Every structure is written in structure tokens, then in C-alpha cells.
Amino acid sequence: MSEAVVQTGIGASVKRKEDLRFITGTGRYTDDFNVAGQKYAVFLRSPYARARIEDIDVSEAANVRGVCTVLTGQQMAEDGLGDIPCGWLVKQKDGSDMVSAPHPPLAATLVNYVGEPYGLVIADTLAAARQGAEAVLTDFAELDAVVDPAEATGSEQIHEGVSDNLAFDWELGERAATEAALASAAHVTRIDLVNNRLIPNAMEPRAALGSYDPGSGEHTLYTTSQNPHLARLVLSAFVQVAPEHKLRIIAPDVGGGFGSKIFIYAEETAVIWAARRTGMTIKWTADRSEAFLADAHGRDHVTHAELGMNEAGEFVALKVSTTANLGAYLSTFGSSVPTYLYGTLLAGQYRTPNIYVEVQGVYTNTAPVDAYRGAGRPEATYVVERVVEQAARELGRDPAELRRFNMITPDQFPYDTPVALTYDTGDYQVSLDRALAMIDYDGFPARREAAAAAGKRRGLGLSCYIEACGLAPSQLAIQLGAGVGLYESGEIRVNPTGNVTVFTGSHSHGQGHETTFAQIVSDRLGIPFDDVEVVHGDTGRVEFGLGTYGSRSLAVGGSALMGAADKLIAKGTKIAAHMLEADPAAVDFTDGSFVVRDSNQALTFGEVAFAAYVPTNYPTELEPGFSEKAFYDPENFTYPAGTHIAEIEIDEATGVIELVDFVAVDDFGHIINPMIVAGQVHGGLAQGVGQALLEHGIYDEYGQLITGSYMDYCMPRADDLPDFRVDTTVTPCTHNPLGVKGCGEAGAIGSPAAIMNAVADALGEAVAMPATSEKIWRVLQNRRTA
Amino acid sequence: MQISLTVNGHDHTLDVPENTLLVDVIREHLKLTGTHVGCDTSQCGACTVHLDGRGVKSCTVLAAQVDGSNVTTIEGIGSTENLHPMQQAFRDCHALQCGFCTPGMIMSAIDLVENVGVQTNQEVREGLEGNICRCTGYHNIVQAVLQVARAGTDQTQEN
Asked: What is the CATH classification number for the domain harbouring A583?
């Protein structure tokens, strides 16, 4: 390989292509686009958690200077728009379908959470739209709200036809065998856990800019989406806003997503509907308060778990019962997160032979809950790693050793878990050992003593997590209820001058695909890194795609690009063989050249590309042109895994927790860009620390969100976090061409349990997330006064 | 209401409603969209610019207050061909991911180095308390700021 390829190819920490526009203020996010004459929308939102809309009086609003029109859910219903569907149909224990309550994009008669949109005001200016919205007089009849998920099944019925507010009662694994193994276990550890509700808070609020061209019938929607093609499919096929070929969705630079921009939302739907209905170009940008109220939230589980062990300390059974809060409606993937993305991960890194999980998904009068960084897997890891840690303490075993004793060993792969997955590869003990060495596990007792002398309680906690990424074989997912396939597309268009434009159906909103995907393609085709341009996020330019979520972009989207590159090389080999008058079987592609074996005859990639577009000396049986695409459908999930260790100190007097040290050792398989991977881990860890120590989305008993701004919802700030120490181990994924697993979510998946185990270690008892200083102080104060 | 101000070296005279915020002058009137709005409670710092050489959250400043002032936004500190040392450090250290908080973060970071004189990891972390990033976990941002701080403030000049 040439020196240039070594520095920019697979495995190099190449500086990101996308940085130049972001650091100079020339990025283009949805709200940065403006069209002359555009109007501004402000949504009418329910102030109640549950109410009947009796009357909407828009007469005063219509008179506000600058207001163009007021549209309501009633008008949307009259226009025949469909409901926003849930994309994953979960089967219940008894084999019946889950019960999906109708979810109109704009509420017409009933509102079911604070902030639910039921109309919009369109005006010449944002100020006029706001003023108009305040002038709308809506008569609500308030109804009793159901807020607490633990009590939802016994409360008043929210949706007609959904008894007990139960969307589904789901199970996985063998109940009888698990209960029998628990009954005969030498020791059973029991734990009750709450996985706190989180609010994703991507820094760019959601936004939409919709326009309609009556001449062509084309609808164009700029929006903050992680998966514009999925949005187009749903808006066309289900909501029926516009036919798919007349709807172009562009997700330009998107300022973070973390799951929250996967879903089909009311506002984006209403903007494009209103654009067509009024003929106006309409812009809407959420303010942060709207984001808190109406972005899908994450987590929110209540769980009881029991882990049985034999005399030797081998795990013999794990039984888990969870109530998952789904919010007021089933969001796009709201049903799959607490089921197939949760229950299937409960084996963790261990050989537990009997596992049973049951999940009740309940409706409440709160914002819909859906995927947030990790999506089900942080919840599963939290259950497994908290109960294992507690078991170790109850048995008086070293927590690291009890884990090691029960780990799946490298010779046992592929390993079939009792909860439906087949782990392809891994070496969990290597990452455990590395993490223990990095944290100086043996030196911890001395550090604890030194802290005690300074009035601090020091604790150490482990979390050995596994996750399933790279979603996943389409046929399996569709059998399990997915409404779409889970493949990805990749296209490489070689231009006549030899540089290439790469089209991916995945979407980058911080992950750096423009860089890593260029690394892959330049490495495979042997062309300069700067000769590769990556295009994504536009249904008008990219054929199809399923977007970015579940740490899938590289494992699935990158693999699709490898497929396209292989097709190019195959065609190029035929062209080169013809031009060099050689047998195609004797032509190899190496270092960017087609070379006749055992000769000095060769053509560069660029020469072959030019010949394909200027076919003078060209095989008659081949089409001209040099552009290939591939769809890649994975055979299996990928299984990143690793060990995270936290060390914390609690101030005895104040209860303040300091995260003193954090070590993460992750196995992501092969790594394309180590710099970007470390950054992904740092960011995931920050969100995990946020969940463990700071963040909590709280509704009061009336369903009012009382953590509705950055003054109430505690986002991690720079001085809340330490420098993170991260490292990687490598067992290449066995079933994709890059041997990669995905790194986007691991930090958020592994870290909460490690931190909370450290808190329990320091305090001598567990507290619920987030472990705020107030909670800790109360525990310590109760002891002092007891 | 008429105001006159200098933004990135260019003089502007604008007629704006009295309740206009500086950030709206920048984004809506001057179409300098590098300055972002990430919240509505002056917490996130995405809108940070320099007002007469000091970092301010432009959502907390009324246009009326900046009459006669000198404002520098992210577009005014460097270009892709000629990056400001802080822009270069952010790129070198992978101190950004989605890029949305980045302009405000860079403007705050320059203010911290030039006007506060931060030198240590803890000083940088406390100094960035008013800027929220959801992507990076701040680790690499802190490294970037320290890279510039430790190289000396003499290279970080603004117009």
C-alpha cells in the first residue's frame, strides 16, 4: 500500500471531513434553510395530561396581524390522513396481537399527554404565529390522568378498546424450567429496580421546512431525521400525506439524534400536510420546551428480577418481570424496545441456562417512550449487572471473580442463549482482565482507606455488558413483528475522472460517516481518501435506506458499500482484461490497480473508470458506465461486549458523589477509525453517567412534566464528568465483510450499572437512579439519626 | 427601532422590533446561521458569540443593547483555509460530533483562553459549565481547549 493509503485507510485516525463546515459555522441544519416567503408554524399543545377537546375557537387568533390560518386535528381527520403507525407488532403471551391505540398525528377529540399537538397556527412571522397560538381559545374537559406505570393496569382506561391500559403482555424463555431451577437453587438473589425515564435532548431541536409545488405535485420536507427513507415510506404508505414518488425528504446536517429522531412525529407530518393544504412553504422549529414535552422519551421500566445459583455459585436461572411505560401512544419502535431489544439480552455474558422474562407494556398519560441510545439493552444490562453484583455481595464472592466464573468462554462460540440469540464470537475475560488492570483493581482497598481518612466513602463497581447491534436479519425481524426490512443500501458511482461519490442509506448526525465510509471505500478501491465523497440523508439522491440506529451504520451500511465495491472490482477486472488482452481470471486488483498476474501490465482504477465511460477499447458484452450498488442484509446481529468499571467517592457530609475514575474496555471487532470510536464511547459514557447520577424525567401526579427545561432536567455538564479512560479488545465479527460490530451505544449501555454498583459499594446499600446527592445525603442522615 | 453594529468586521444598520434578541439579529436578519439556538432558558450556550471581545449568550442580549457594539460570530474567527487555532484544535482533538453545540463551544473556549486564562483540566471544565454538549462527553473538548491554552494566548488573535 502507498503511504497515503496507510494514513487514511481502515484503522487510521483520520481527521473528519465533516469538521470543516461545523467548526466554521457553515454546517446546514434544517432551521438554517430559508425559502423566500416562507411562513412559520407554532403548534397548539395540550396543557392537560388527559382531556376531551370540547371546542376550539380560532376567531380571535385569525384576527391577529400576520396570522394566515389555524389548522386543527379535526381538519386533518377530514382530509383523511391516517394514524401514525407503530412499526413493530409484538405478539402477546396468548398469541394475540398487541393492542395499538389509534395515534392521529394531530389530536382531534382527545388529548392524552401534556404537549400533545392538536393544531397549528401559520403566520408570516414566528412572533405572529406565537401570538396567534396564544389567542386560540380551546375548551377542554379535563379527565383523570394515568401517570404511574406501576399502577397503570388498575387505573382508569385511557384508550377505548385497551383494557387495563395494557398494550401487550409479552414473554420470552421457558417459564416452568426457570421457576423450577429457581426453586431448587442453593441461593436466590432478588432485586427490585427502576430504570429512570430519560429525555434524549439532542442539542438541535426537531425542525421541519415543508413545501408543495402544485405544478409538479412534488412535496419537499427538510427535517431532522435519522432515517428519511423510513419517514417517507411511513408518511406515504400509512399516513398518506403524499405518494412516495412525489415526496422528497431531506435530512441535512442533523444535530444529534440518539434515537429520538428515528420516529415519525406529529409535527413533521403536520407541516408537510399543511404545506400542501395551504400552498405555503412552512417552517417549524421546536423550542427546547417543546422538545422536552413532545420528543419521545426513553427507558422508564419497573423491574423485579431473581437470579438463582447453585452451591458453587454457577448461575442456574434468571427470572425477570418488567413493567414498561410506553407513554400515551405506541411510538414507531416503542413496542420492540422493551421486548425484543430487552428480553433477548438478559443472558448477558453468562452461561445462565434458564432465563424467563415477561414484560407488560402499559399506556400512561405521558409522552410516548421509544428508543434512546441503547434502547432496551441498557435496561437489560442494568438488570443483569445489578443482580449479579448483588449476588456476589450476598455470597461474599469477589464480584469480578463471580462474573468470570460464569462467563461464556471463547471455545463455546457460537453460543445459543436461552433468550433467542446466537452470539457469534467474543472473549469477555480479556476485556474484564484489561479493565481490572487499568483501574488497578488490587489497589482499590488502599484507595478506599485513603478516601475514608479524608471523610469520603469510596466505591468500585463493575459492569460486564453485551449488546446486540447491526440490526439484523430482515426475515427474522419481520417474523418477530418488524414492519420493515433491516438491510442497508450502498452505492458507489465512479465518475469518469476516477473519483467517486458514495451513497449510503444510513444517516450521519454526529457519527462521522463521511469520514469512515470514505476510509472504507478508499481502502477497498485503492483511491485517495480525498477522492471519495459520501452522500446521505436525501431521498432524492439516495435510492433507499433504513437510516441510523442500533449501532448499525458501519456493520450493515458499511458492509453494503463493500458489496458495491466488490461489484465494481469485478466489472473493472473484465474491462481491464479486455484492454490488456488478458484472461480475466489472470487479472488481480491490488493497491488500486488491475494487474495481469506475473506481468508488468496494469491499469489504474482511474484508467478503467475512464474506459467505462469512453468505451473505445471495450468488451462488447459489457454495458458502459462504472457505478454499482448493493443491499446488505446481515445474517445475524453483531455482539459488542466489554467491561466498564467506575470508581466513585461520596462526601460523608454532603452526599455529593464524585465520579473519580472510569474505565471502559470494549470489543467492537475491527475498528475503522480509532479516534471516532473513542469519541463515540466518551459520548455514550456521558449519557450513561447522566442516567446514573443526574437525569430524570419526572411527571407529577397530574401528568405535568416538572422537568421541562435545562433548569429542571439535569444534563451532564463538563464539570460533572471526569476524563474517561477507554481501550478496546478485538474479536472480529464473524459474519460481515468488515468484521465490525458497532460502537455507538456501548457507553450508554454498560456504564449505568457500573456506577450504581460503585454507589452501592460505597454506601453499603443501593439507591435508585439517578443517585443524586440529596438521595445519598438522606440515606446517610437517616443512619445518623437512627 | 434602528440599531447599528459591527459584525465580523462589517457595519450594519438594521431596523428591528424592540423585543428582538441579538441571536435573532444574527440568524434571522444577517443570515449568519453558524450561531445556533439549543434552548429557551439561556442554559445551553449554543448561541455564544463575542460582544466587544467577551463571550456572551446571544439569546440573553437584546438587539437594543448592542447598538454601537462589535460582535464576532463563529463565521468571523477563521475560514476553512485559515482556521483559528481553536477551530484547528477542535478538529485535531475530535472535539465535535454532530457540530450543533460546536460554534458556541468554540466561542466560549476562545473567551476562556483569552480572557479567563484557563490552564488546567478542572478550570476548563468549570469554564465550559455554560455550554452543553450531548455528543462528546466533553473529554475531547477539554483536550482541545487545553491544547490552545497551553500553546499560549499569543496565537489566538481576533480581528
From this structure: 3.30.365.10
DSSP-derived 3-state class of residue A8:
helix
* Domain limits for position A465: 301-471+636-785
Distance CA B56, CA B58 (A): 6
Mean predicted confidence (pLDDT) in A482-489:
91
pLDDT of residue B159: 35
- Residue A372 in any domain: the answer is yes
Same domain, yes or no: A613 and A537: yes
pLDDT at A755: 98
HSE at residue A433, side-chain half, CA atoms within 13 A, is 7
Taking the Cβ of residue B115 and every Cβ of chain A, the question of whether any pair is shorter than 8 Å is answered with no
Q: Which residues of A touch B141 (CB under 8 A)?
A: 718
Residue A663 lies in a domain: yes
Q: Do A72 and A217 share a structural domain?
A: yes
Q: For residue A590, list its beta bridge partners.
A: A593
* pTM flag (> 0.95): yes
Specify whether the CB–CB gap between A326 and A334 falls below 8 A: yes
A724 — contact with chain B (CB < 8 Å)?
A: yes
Task: For residue A665, give the C-alpha cell.
Answer: 474496555
**Residue A509 dihedral angles phi and psi, to the nearest 5°:** -135, 50
Is there a single domain that holds both residue A776 and residue A642? yes
**Residue bearing cell 481470471:** A585
The pLDDT of residue B156 is 45
> How far apart are the C-alpha atoms of A295 and A300, rounded to whole Å?
15
The stretch A434-457 carries a mean pLDDT of 98
Where among A578, A610, A632 does a domain terminate?
A: A632
- Check CB contact under 8 Å for B41 and A254: no
Number of structural domains, chain A?
3
Tell me which residue in B92, B125, B135 faces A256 most closely, judged by beta carbons: B135
d(CA B101, CA B91): 14
Separation CA A333–CA A296 (nearest Å) = 10
Which domains can be identified in chain B, with CATH numbers?
A: 2-76 (3.10.20.30), 85-154 (1.10.150.120)
- Rounded Cα distance between A444 and A357, Å, is 36
Its ipTM equals 0.96
Could you tell me if A67 and A88 lie in one domain? yes
Which among A24, A27, A287 has the least Cβ separation from residue B79? A24
Average per-residue pLDDT for chain A: 96
A601 with A646, same domain? no
